[in-house]
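Entry 14. Two folds queued back to back today. First construct below, sequence then structure tokens.
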Amino acid sequence: MKVLKFGGSSVASAENIKKVVDVIRKIEGEAIVVLSAMQGTTDKLIDAGRMAERGDEGYKQKLDGIRGLHMRTVTELFPSQSIAPIQMAIEEDLRELERIVQGVSLVGECSLRTLDNILSFGELLSSSLVSMYLNAVGVETGSLDSRCLIRTDSNFGSASVDFKETNSFIEQYFIKSDFGGRKSKLTVVPGFIASDTSGHTTTLGRGGSDYTAAIFAAALDADVLEIWTDVSGMMTADPRFVRNVREIPRITYREAMELSHFGAKVIYPPTIQPVMAKRIPVCVKNTFSPDDFGTLIEAETSDAKMIRGITSIDKIAVLNLEGSGMVGVPGFSKRLFDALSRSQINVILITQSSSEHSICVAIEEKANDRAKAAVDREFEYEIAVGKIDPLRVETGLSILALVGDRMRFHTGVSGRMFSTLGHNGVNIRAIAQGSSERNISAIIESADVRKAVNTLHEEFFSDGNKQINIFVAGVGTVGSRLLGQIEQQFQHVSDELRLNLRVVGVATSKKAAFADEGVELGTIKDVIAEAEASDIAAFTDSIIERNLRNSIFVDVTASPDVVETYPKLLQRSVSVIACNKIAASSELKKYQALKDLAREFNSNFLFETNVGAGLPVIKTLEDLIRSGDKVNRIEAVLSGTLNFVFNSYDGTRSFSDVVRQAQQEGYTEPDPRLDLSGTDVARKILILAREAGYAIEMADITNVAFLPESCLAGTVEDFYAEMTRQEPHFRKLLDDATAQGLKLKYIASLDAGKASVGLQSIGPDHNFANLSGKDNAVLFYTNRYADQPLVIKGAGAGADVTAAGVFADIIRAAR
């Protein structure tokens, strides 16, 4: 004996019913086929009943829709010469349905008992239709109303089965009465419906057709129960959330129960219990891909996977009962659950503090008002005298569950789960884990479910690749080079570092573009040209709203407005990579606040390119400090721009011409005066001093300027014109140094917490004498490197090396 159940999507249309019949034709031996209502019919029936109850004539349109669907299916399935009796049979049921709903409209009441009667027509219509079609195409078929055999209590809407009586009826019909008067070995029955001892129609809960099939399978000791649906078995996660979900070929009964209970929609949770007791295997198959293996649910499986799946339940409310009067007093928990039970409220999850000061339970959100009223009423006295607080209800939550029988054989699973969620800013409101260690559940905000499921699926089921979602503000010279490097190195980073870099959003000061599948980096100019108008605040708000896992924001601007968005990003665990120097060189308290936010919310705040473009200056300094070393003195040439200018200025060209060349080659800030005034170098030594552990402000840095005050006024072009007029001043600086056999270098220093920047004339023996081109150099004098400094040297300016430094920070944050 085999029992097959076909879901609503499998019988949703004439075309789908033909696929069902193709599956049924291949059955060998006896079989029972259980059918759900045609897809969408049950919802329409509920709407019709409730609309009729409140006097809304729109119920007639709902019923017309049901009639149209079934009659259209009849027309498409049956030849015209034999269609009349089929239509009459379907029409008879439809007229009976109309009479019941019209009665509801007249009395203005739709009890649960009446609603169950209305809902039964969905399954009755579909099973009648399929049964008649099977016979019409030559598949000898008998039909049976499951209400005749499945006996329940009178809990309308979700009735409990009387298995003793039900099993007796099923055995009597199918086994003890010599084939039960049946005319064929194939019997079609409607799912979902049953009857109580008074003969009133009851239902087994939404999804109850699976349960019907399991009841028949268990009663008859069937060889197998097949659940035919529109997916090829159970999945490791909800495919609506996760792109690369995997099918689960084999799973145990208990794992399947956990997954189905916690939101996996493939199988109705109560289905497992009857067949598990009889150790009847359950196959979940795809009506539309019948050759796919699907999922086999059995008592034990040889599959040694630690985690079987990740699932979630939405629309959860959390009830928090707290109070010092609960400590050490027995009976509070019992009274809480009794109060909820009397109000017919199902508890999904329970957790309690070890101090007994509070107890937390999760229920369906739709029952939260009833729950609060019931619990506050139960503890009315204790609340009045202050022993406990009024019940606190939180909504907008979901339960996230990690399921797997073999988790108990592996240490650290919970740690990996919560660490992964924490690094992505998913806040855990409550935790529950059974002693069997088959399920680890956490309550989180519903807004974080998609990110949480994707993050955990990547952690436990991916091939090792990690999805990184990048948002870039600023696509000028450095920004465009960065995007080019990401595109060029994409495959290398994927193959070698197992990182899948996806640029999801790009922004300029006036426009922003997003692409959930990733921006086409090779056409970035076109992308920006077609982008919608936006400012940086709206751009970063969109990043937060998208709430993607492993998000990194990259600031390749010099804008203070962009810096203002850092705190809200870090608070949502979005890492910030700043090529922009403003944040790290701002007021000390703002700098420290950003560092603190990054630590508090498990995000990264990285700004390596603030000091030496692509040179690993800050990272090296961090390594020194973390390893217990102490920085006593720093000497540095921190401006590739100024080093290039003074290396190139030899008197054959004007000073202004050399500066203009430096700007044209991309070495300077957009406003070269930031470089030549020493402001940029002062920012850099300030950042190094702070990273070395010194609490100093910009005003504490001594800046010995070489640029005449008059050069700082007006526009950039005014600046160049004034430099031309001041050429004698610059020539004198050069001549004085040359006459002494010295070179001009702009040097920053930090000594005993005192910082200064300025132009110096240095001799040939100086550490910086041979710095050429746009090179930078940093000398760290520490406790370990007291006599011979640790030296970092290399190109300190240029779009390519700066972009490479930003790229390195992205990789660092991603890993």
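Second construct, same run, same settings:
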Amino acid sequence: MKVPLPWLREYCDPPLDVSAIEERLTMTGTKVEAIHRHGVPATDCFVVGRVLSAEQHPDADRLKVCKVDVGDGEDAAATIVCGAPNVAAGQTVAVARPGALMPDGTKLKQAKLRGVVSEGMILSESELEISTGSEGIMVLDSQMLDAELAPGTPLEQVLAISTDVLELEITPNRPDCLGVYGVARELHAATGAPLADAPWSEDPGSDGPVSGAEVLVECPDLCPRFTARVFENVAVAPSPPWLKARLTAAGQRPINNVVDITNYAMLLTGQPLHAFDLDRVAGGRLTVRRAREGEQVQTLDGQTRTLDAEIVLIEDADGPTSIAGLMGGARSEVEPDTTRVLMEVATWHGPNIHRSSWALALRSEASGRFEKGLQPEQCMHAQALAAQLMIDLCGATLAPGTIDLGPKAAGAVAGGLQLGLREARVQAILGVLVALERQTEILNALDFHTEARAGGLEVTVPALRRDDVTREIDLIEEVARIDGLERLPATLPARRGAAGRLSHAQRVRRAAEDAMVGRGLREVVGWSFADPELLDRLLLPDGHPLRRVVALENPMSDAQSIMRPTLIGSLLDAARHNVARNGPDVAIFESGTVYRAAAPDAPGDLPADEHHGLGVLLSGSLVPRSWRGDPPEADFFAAKALLEALLYRFGLEWSVQADALPFLHPGRSAAVLAAPSPGSALAGAGSEPIRLGFLGELHPLVAGAWDLQRAAAFAIDLGKLAALASPLVEFAAFGPFPPLRQDLAVTLPESVAAAEALVSVRDAAGAMLEDARVFDVYSGAQVGEGRRSLALALSFRALERTLTDEDVEPVRAKIVAALEQLGGELRG
């Protein structure tokens, strides 16, 4: 919502500049999104002028040479060449002198037009951004502007030609702030500056029946209140410049004085209005009812809209005239020849307006207000203000009486809710003492009524806040935000067992992310939503666990209609984005949540599986290219090295096991298994290792679908990792005696994985074996078909002495025996 600052200051004018006002409003919950400048950048060189003469230009049919008194006297009148068709002697006009800065930033200079020197410009409304379009110059009227228009008077004293405009974000629970006066009330409470009387405090209208007009409400559940007044002798004409300037600054397009009055009253009170040409209302009667399925109405934007049975419309004897709360109809709109106006101000059921707006894909200033829940009392606020303006600006005669219908009509609105506010409770919640006098001052400034009682206050909630303030805690919030949230101490909640530290799972997650950053990877953040086509692009067959997706009921688009079942999709999207922009070398990771629906045979109402995962993707070169030769490319072993650095960070014993996933390269993929570490949540749960995730190179078809040549990846479940990892990583000191290193070469069947061989070696050797690694692999005729040779580096150490070959020989024999059970034979 846009609020011109001069309009706001008309009702509350604190001695603060625009930046300070922005800060106070934002800190009290009425957030100022931006501050705009509307009109001219600077007001210097803009003055009131009087046209003394307007003679035809000697060399141009469409130009006139004008003598204009700009405050220096008639003898020193400025010569201004003007092309407007309506310029004439005797007019009072707005003049820009040389040096003036126009709204588009152009600096006006003295210029020669067809041989005649022009010393300025006579301005139109559009050139001052008072209205969006005008065919001639703007003629100033002292009565309409209520100001003295002596030549030379600074134009800013007559019109708001340079205005700061606050763009506000009004939260859905505060529809009372959808009008300028409501924002002024907030500013009054926030700064203590005086608040002017409400603009609707004086109502020229009266109660009672209205002659010549009738209204019937058939759906009072959707129309809590409907009011209407009749105006005779209406003169439809352009609005005065001050009204146009104010509407334009607030983002509204001026149309004519009647329509502009409805928009002006809406912007000031927050309550939408609609003006009917009463002579075009067939039968002089309006009926409010639910639409019939398939019924059509032509709205003011020229479109014919098809309605359903949940949409409310207003009709006359000839059929529908408008859609309630959304937009008026073309058949009864105000025209230049209108002389009788029926001013309708109603309250509509907010959820129904929201639903209707969505169903018709039609949003308006009115619907945006109604759907937030306006109160029935606001109807007469707008009626009183509109009546004053119709009399003043249209010369209208207000007919006696007011139509006022509905269960929430005058006299039928329930009294204000009364709530108790305890002084001790305020201090307990906020953690700081707010004096009872200060609480009273704040609540009274916000239009609450307060009475002292033992230990606190008895507070009556004003009508405009009845849907927002319903409990004591809501009153405490009002006190806190106005007194200053920045003044509240930073404390933890008073709760048993509360601790100001990260949980074990959070520490594991951050440590895993830090480990990847430390290895040179860059973090990416992808959408939690995914395209259903992702499942086919990952070659997932029907029935695969990753196809158990969580579908969204109301997706933003078809391409984001499921929750992602894996991190690989968003990692591939990020990699393709970089490769397409000449970034072929990709090393990225993502830490985020993945979602999978429960299995069909899951017992009971088992919720969907939602866990936090870590995914890594490598593609291209691992290090920058240089003169020393081609750098190594991303492959299975590069990804495995990163995984090893991560899992050893948590002291886990882990291994890989050959496994085939549809989107991974056959023969270059594996499952990642790990055993619980001592002290972990799963320690002692069993000896079987737990599957953490997968590791491998991407299937060529999958990599190609994302425009990648070759890529390797892994993904693990950080929740399982946290359960497997001990909260404390124990430090083990190096032994004071040197290790004894021996190599062992053994041939094994190709079906025996190297990891399986290393597990057998470690199990057979016991505590004396400090480390065992594969440092060479050989396949060829010398070892026989179907076999391969593994060269193992063994490191033995004892803490109490230096080991000899004789000490290690029995352990070595056990290792050989274990390898022989796998079909192994020693070489050499």
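Quick look at the second one. The first helix runs from residue 5 to 9. The CA atoms of residues 776 and 791 lie 5 Å apart.
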